[in-house]
């Protein structure tokens, strides 16, 4: 399993939502490579009634069909439910499910009506259930404009909003457990608190931290 560091506050927030008796609507956003997907996967690891769907760039019908496949893998009883976002979400609400839709902006790109359709089913059905709906996005502008802004259909319905930031320097020892404290902080300065660059250093066009720290590269 890939290393997962800190995010205790965010995990506690999500767990509180999952355990609450009422409906919860959570929005998680932040730039890419900060661990949003891993955060939500970790948060639902012990939940049998959780659905995790990661949207991809595709046509709206394909995206919906992929969502149906994900849902029916977890809830086979819903295999005959009509292929419609509102109908599917309403059915999941009746199951008091935890539903995570990752990379939500990809869905909006193909169907701009989706936020208003989710707003309608939330107001009419889901807010009276024990469901938790989690929308995750890496496009900060889309999440802010289409989900969080005052003019967005879903505005004001969130029970929790998580703006995920890079890991703090205080997490350096956990992030680099193989190093002494000084070296761990130097390594952290190279990767900038971005978990994915620690796991995939080639993507940042950097040498591994163990090779770089000896050079005493200044922190910029």
TrEMBL record:
SUPFAM superfamilies: P-loop containing nucleoside triphosphate hydrolases
Molecular function, one GO term: ATP binding
Pfam family, one: ATPase_2
Domain (ATPase): residue spans on this chain: 4-197
InterPro entries: ATPase_dom (IPR011579), P-loop_NTPase (IPR027417)
Xref: PANTHER family: ATPASE
Record's protein name: Putative ATPase (AAA+ superfamily)
Organism: Haloquadratum walsbyi J07HQW1
Lineage, top ranks: Archaea, Methanobacteriati, Methanobacteriota, Stenosarchaea group, Halobacteria
């Amino acid at each position: 399993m890939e290393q997962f560091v800190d995010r205790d506050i965010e995990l506690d927030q999500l767990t509180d939502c999952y355990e609450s008796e009422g409906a919860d609507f959570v929005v998680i956003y932040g730039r890419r490579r900060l661990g949003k997907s891993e955060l939500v996967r970790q948060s639902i690891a012990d939940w049998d009634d959780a659905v995790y769907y990661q949207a991809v760039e595709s046509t709206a019908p394909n995206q919906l069909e992929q969502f149906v496949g994900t849902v029916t893998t977890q809830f086979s009883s819903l295999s005959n439910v009509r292929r419609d976002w509102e109908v599917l979400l309403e059915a999941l609400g009746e199951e008091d499910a935890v539903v995570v839709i990752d990379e939500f902006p990809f869905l909006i790109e193909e169907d701009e009506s989706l936020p208003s359709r989710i707003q309608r089913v939330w107001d009419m059905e889901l807010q009276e259930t024990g469901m938790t709906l989690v929308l995750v996005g890496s496009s900060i502008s889309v999440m802010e404009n289409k989900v969080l802004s005052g003019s967005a259909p879903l505005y004001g319905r969130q029970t929790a909003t998580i703006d995920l930031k890079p890991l703090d320097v205080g997490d350096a020892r956990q992030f680099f457990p193989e190093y002494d404290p000084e070296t761990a902080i130097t390594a952290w300065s190279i990767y900038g608190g971005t978990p994915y660059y620690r796991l995939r250093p080639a993507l940042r066009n950097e040498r591994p931290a163990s090779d770089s720290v000896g050079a005493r590269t200044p922190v910029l």
